[in-house]
């Protein structure tokens, strides 16, 4: 845990007692703050009380004595309208912050020189975050990974000299972090997302910009217009900017050239890494993730050789284009995290011949947008509530069967690929939510791994989960 010592002796109000909120409350108490907490969910309040956290409805406290409102990132700050606790705080001119801001203040107070890499972007941030942490860990560095991925940031070990922090930041967390100042800040891309919480795409982009604007080095993907303009603004303001691209050569920065990452600087260019053969970093989107990771790691002192070794040994992000088993020319790929068509597209773009397992609880728009990728699909195995609708979209373009269940789909796809002489992928990339058959996409992905492990002749590339659906 990181005790929030910068709030010692201060009265702090906290709203939101989910996982990160409860961790933040404990951090504040450990740091010596006088904390009062509340949540609109009575069960969350009861859980906090059971763990010794002081609770009181914030509508009944004296706000004039409060220094700070700490808001959980899932609670609306601005849109569709501010939460009532935000209105009460702002009426008294009280700052409203989140747990990542507390972390940033603790780092400045106790170990301002310890390397801190923060990652954001609409797509790819979890893979990039995990890849950076892996490169650092595999090179023997003391590495802490958290934020919007894995552990809440204040449950990490405290900042100290030589300790590296890799923190994934959602737009909600950035919005609550006015003094965020990473050593290297990464903005991968900006596409429309979370507009219910930010109002407009421009406001969403403005929030993302704050992370790189405060960075020692800003690593920015320039393949979309919003991010390209952000890179220009940060640079004009005097910031150090490293541009990255997955599809275009750059005069200065890191870019993808087929499966190679090129470093360009001062009129010259050289290969910094070759991704060929690294199954967990297939596709142009992963080339962007790798370029960002390379740029950030070099910024904090990792050597090029250490970076290349880390790239080669990266096992991938669980449930995201994760190779989990192999049998002859067939690789079994767990992409359960692809819960809509846009999320499924990168995986489908990364293999030439695919036996595709898709379906579940359908999202708006279905899979029509994936039509340009249909020629890569040898056969589709449709499951869950979306099966009939997906079948109608596939029509005569792709051979398919309605398998119904994931177990049936895996068994049939394995049988159909038994005689394949060329490399193929049996891929779970559902383009659907999981809730019709599974608790969440993680349980669905674990079930897929279990079904693959039960096949004859498969060499597993990951540990097989115990239990599950």
Question: How would you describe what is shown here?
Answer:
The protein folds into three domains: 89 residues, Rossmann fold; 213 residues, UDP-N-acetylmuramoyl-L-alanine:D-glutamate ligase (3-Layer(aba) Sandwich); 139 residues, Alpha-Beta Complex (Protein-Tyrosine Phosphatase, Chain A), CATH 3.90.190. The protein is 33% helix and 23% strand. The chain contains 15 helices and 22 strands. The strands form four sheets. A nine-stranded mixed β-sheet has the order 6-7-5-8-9-10-11-12-13, with helices on both faces. It is globular, with a radius of gyration of 23 Å. The model has no long low-confidence stretch (mean pLDDT 94). Belongs to the MurCDEF family.
Number of domains: 3
Number of continuous helical runs:
15
Strand fraction: 15-25%
Strand order of the largest sheet: 6-7-5-8-9-10-11-12-13
Q: Calculate Rg over CA atoms.
A: 23 Å
How far the N terminus sits from the C terminus, by CA atoms, comes to 33 Å
General shape: globular
CATH superfamily of the largest domain: Mur-like, catalytic domain
Backbone structural class: alpha/beta
- What does the average pLDDT come to? 94
Low-confidence stretches: none
CATH architecture of the largest domain: 3-Layer(aba) Sandwich
Describe the largest sheet: 9 strands, mixed
Tally of extended strands? Answer: 22
């Amino acid at each position: 845990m990181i005790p929030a010592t910068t709030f010692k002796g201060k009265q702090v109000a906290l709203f939101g007692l989910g996982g990160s909120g409860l961790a933040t409350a404990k951090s504040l108490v450990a740091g010596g703050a006088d904390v009062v907490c509340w949540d609109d969910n009575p069960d969350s309040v009861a859980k906090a009380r059971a763990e010794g956290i002081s609770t009181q409805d914030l509508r009944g406290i004296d706000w004039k004595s409060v220094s700070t409102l700490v808001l959980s990132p899932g609670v609306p700050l601005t849109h569709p309208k501010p939460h009532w606790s935000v209105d009460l705080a702002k009426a008294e001119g009280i700052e409203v912050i989140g747990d990542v801001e507390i972390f940033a203040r603790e780092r400045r107070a106790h170990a301002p020189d310890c390397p801190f890499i923060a990652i954001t972007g609409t797509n790819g941030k979890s893979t990039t975050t995990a890849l950076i942490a892996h490169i650092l860990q595999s090179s023997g560095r003391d590495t802490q990974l958290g934020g919007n991925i894995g552990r809440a940031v204040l449950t990490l070990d405290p900042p100290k000299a030589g300790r590296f922090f890799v923190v994934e930041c959602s737009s909600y967390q950035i919005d609550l972090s006015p003094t965020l100042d990473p050593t290297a800040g990464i903005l991968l891309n900006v596409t429309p997302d979370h507009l219910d919480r930010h109002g407009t795409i421009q406001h969403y982009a403005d929030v993302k910009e704050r992370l790189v604007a405060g960075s020692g080095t800003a690593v920015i993907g320039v393949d979309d217009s919003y991010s390209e303009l952000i890179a220009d603004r940060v640079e004009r303001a005097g910031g150090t900017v490293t541009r990255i691209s997955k599809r275009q050569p750059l005069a200065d920065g890191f870019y993808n050239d087929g499966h190679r990452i090129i470093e360009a600087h001062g009129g010259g260019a050289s290969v910094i890494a070759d991704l060929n053969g690294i199954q967990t970093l297939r596709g142009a989107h992963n080339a962007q993730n790798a370029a960002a990771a390379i740029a950030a790691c070099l910024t904090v002192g990792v050597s090029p050789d250490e970076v290349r070794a880390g790239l080669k040994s990266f096992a991938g992000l669980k449930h995201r284009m994760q190779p989990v088993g192999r049998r002859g020319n067939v690789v079994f790929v767990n992409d359960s995290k692809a819960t809509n068509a846009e999320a499924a597209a990168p995986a489908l773009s990364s293999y030439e011949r695919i036996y595709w397992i898709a379906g579940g609880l359908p999202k708006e728009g279905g899979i029509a947008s994936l039509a340009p990728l249909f020629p890569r699909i040898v056969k589709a195995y449709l499951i869950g509530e979306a099966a009939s609708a997906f079948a109608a979209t596939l029509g005569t373009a792709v051979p398919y069967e309605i398998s119904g269940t994931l177990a049936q789909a895996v068994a049939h796809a394995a049988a159909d690929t038994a005689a394949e002489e060329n490399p193929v992928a049996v891929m779970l990339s559902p383009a659907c939510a999981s809730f019709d058959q599974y608790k969440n996409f993680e349980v669905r992905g674990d079930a897929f791994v279990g079904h693959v492990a039960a096949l004859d002749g498969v060499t597993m590339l990951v540990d097989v989960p115990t239990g599950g659906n």
